[in-house]
Amino acid sequence: MEGASGQRPLGVAVLGHGTVGAEVVNIIREDALDLQERIGAPLELRGVAVRDASSDRGIPAELLTTDAEALVRRDDVDLVVELIGGIELPRTLVRAALDAGKSVVTANKALLAAYTGELAEAAESHNADLYFEAAVAGAIPVIRPLTQSLAGDRVDRVMGIVNGTTNYILSAMDESGADYETTLAEAGRLGYAEADPTADVEGFDAAAKAAILASIAFHTRVTASDVYREGMSSITAADLTSARALNCTIKLLAICERISGPDGRDRVSARVYPALVPREHPLATVAGAFNAVVVEAQAAGRLMFYGQGAGGAPTASAVMGDLVMAARNRVQGGRGPRESKYAKLEIAPMSDIVTRYYVNLQVADRAGVLSAVAAEFATRGVSISAVRQEGAGDGARLVVLTHRATDRALADTVAALENLESVTAVTSVLRLEGSAE
Ligand SMILES: NC(=O)C1=CN([C@@H]2O[C@H](COP(=O)(O)OP(=O)(O)OC[C@H]3O[C@@H](n4cnc5c(N)ncnc54)[C@H](OP(=O)(O)O)[C@@H]3O)[C@@H](O)[C@H]2O)C=CC1
Ligand SMILES: N[C@@H](CC=O)C(=O)O
């Protein structure tokens, strides 16, 4: 049957009706006429796959199914929107869709970071679109600028806050001294956190996003296992207080860089860790579930993208943008830009990365301790930028901030400090990013 536009309707299957899926289904149903105008053909919702089809979700019961695979394979489905989460089931469903020549929109960064090559090749060989704007930084357009707007430039660096849950927690701890557990539970209630919030707080979600960003920024294939990762669950109120004393805050950062290897050839570094960020840096002011991504490209210079990084409606905005693009491509009989020919750049090990360390040590409060600690830095060629003693007696602590050095030298220094007789404990080690020095 043809729509008012004269074009055959495009059948859409939405897999998942949770935080994001429910918003997407609402927009498809409520904005049907506007979408038809923008696409040039009506979108018709063929079904919504869920785990539990018995609950009332405010949509016609006949749309609901627990058989996602059968829904994807229906002949009247042209476009598949995957919003289930996880890896293996969505992989099967997305492959089934692409192999049948259906275009796919997904917000699933874990899936993409694990199987980017396989899925891109399936899309390529079956002439289908695979879009994933929502997989990185929620509502913020960052995938399309990197894959299209900057396709003719050379990107050197992408650094950002790409996880809303952890930014929500760190901002609340910093601004009001809020408690970690309470704020994490709140992030879950607000729909920011993953089904298993370990993915957020241990940096897996940000690492998956870093893999996607590095892949498209550097036209190479980077998977989640290539990303160096540290989570933020061990950050304490004391760390934030010390950061404040240095005029910094703490943010979970994803950093993707093109760096030169020892043979002069380009390599890629992708890493995620909580870092001190100077308060005057633009990323320091990004609060709550907001995300921001700073891109440095040779001709464009520095660009910054900012907005809501998590939550049902913001993420649905990015999903719908992709769905409209994929649908338009169908109407016009083509497909969007392909994955760039990939360069297979080597992954640089973390030990080669040059960074700055902040080290917090519990120490004996007696003469000679400072020089013993300083000697461990000096022996490994690490220059100290600032040292401060906090507390006295049993509560004595030394806070050391270094100048730039390789992560290898910094990590070796910390290992040596752990064995120093006058150091009772290395209480925290964080990197400092975004400083001019
Ligand atoms: N929430 C956010 O802010 C963002 C999420 N994302 C990504 O979007 C995706 C969806 O996230 P979100 O909406 O938060 O997840 P939810 O957990 O809220 O929703 C998941 C949905 O998938 C359905 N589902 C689960 N297993 C199956 C199955 N075997 N068959 C059919 N349906 C199934 C669930 O059904 P039922 O309702 O019956 O339980 C539910 O409707 C994830 O990949 C996530 O990483 C990306 C950016 C932001
Ligand atoms: N759990 C994620 C959701 C969006 O990707 C986050 O907190 O950023």
From TrEMBL:
Any one Gene Ontology molecular-function term assigned to this protein's record: homoserine dehydrogenase activity
Domain of life: Bacteria
Enzyme class: oxidoreductase
Cofactor: a metal cation
Domain ACT: start-end pairs: 358-434
InterPro entries the UniProt entry points to: ACT-like_dom_sf, ACT_dom, Asp/hSer_DH_NAD-bd, HDH, HDH_cat, HDH_CS, NAD(P)-bd_dom_sf
Pathway assigned in UniProt: Amino-acid biosynthesis; L-threonine biosynthesis; L-threonine from L-aspartate: step 3/5; Amino-acid biosynthesis; L-methionine biosynthesis via de novo pathway; L-homoserine from L-aspartate: step 3/3
Reactions catalysed: L-homoserine + NAD(+) = L-aspartate 4-semialdehyde + NADH + H(+); L-homoserine + NADP(+) = L-aspartate 4-semialdehyde + NADPH + H(+)
E.C. number: 1.1.1.3
Keyword tags: Amino-acid biosynthesis, Methionine biosynthesis, NADP, Oxidoreductase, Sodium, Threonine biosynthesis
NCBIfam families xref list: PRK06349.1
Function: Catalyzes the conversion of L-aspartate-beta-semialdehyde (L-Asa) to L-homoserine (L-Hse), the third step in the biosynthesis of threonine and methionine from aspartate.
Protein name from the UniProt record: Homoserine dehydrogenase
Species this chain originates from: Rhodococcus artemisiae
Record lineage: Bacteria, Bacillati, Actinomycetota, Actinomycetes, Mycobacteriales
